[in-house]
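Weekly structure sync - notes
Attendees: PM, LS, DV (DV joined late)
Agenda: review two folding runs queued last week.

Item 1: First target. Sequence and structure tokens pasted below for the record.
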Amino acid sequence: QVQLVESGGGLVQAGGSLRLSCAASGRTFSSYAMGWFRQAPGKEREFVAVISRRDSSTFYADSVKGRFTISRDNAKNTVYLQMNSLKPEDTAVYYCAADPRRGIATMYRVSPREYEYWGQGTQVTVSS
């Protein structure tokens, strides 16, 4: 089992940057592909980015491509989401999640239903 704790959210002006972190418990962190999702009020949870278990291949939602960067440090059991050029429409609760499936390309890890473990979320608010 994996427990996930997000941090790094906050209030930022449009055009600013934030770096989210997701710390995982357990010794099997490197066994999971890790994803970031977000959910705005009244909307469904949506995919943001995913990184593979070990080779660090990544995949992004079109809405964040070129602005957000996902990375991981397996030695620290942590996955990161660097968010640059933030826009008001990026305002949401951001969640990290762990996907235990193997042999799946990152581009197919976009459904929240496939992720087994979730953090509690961290609020990101971008003011205009």
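Item 2: Second target, run right after the first with the same settings.
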Amino acid sequence: QVQLRESGGGVVHPGGSLTLSCAASGSISEIAILGWYRLAPGNERELMSLSTRGSTHYGDSVKGRFTFSRDDARNTFYLQLDNLEPEDTAVYYCKAGSPVTGSWGQGTQVTVSS
């Protein structure tokens, strides 16, 4: 299993943007499923994006605002967050691998506040 490390979180005003990165300790080119999730206080874990070979599924609350991408040469995948809203405030986690045995990162805090 690869180890994952997120970065790119921070504090941003409503309408702003951030780019989250998830750097893997090894190759991601053969990993079939790459995902982003978030967890806000009092809420359940929410899917942001789930990317398999050739397609990416987005959670309903972020469709059209968040975009997944990957750079296999850098062993890194990304989540571009645009048009952020206060409701997007949460800890964002990346995941690589199967739903049961996949690796999780440690999380990065995103705070959207005026």
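Discussion on item 2: The chain has a mean pLDDT of 95.
Action: LS to circulate a short write-up before next sync.
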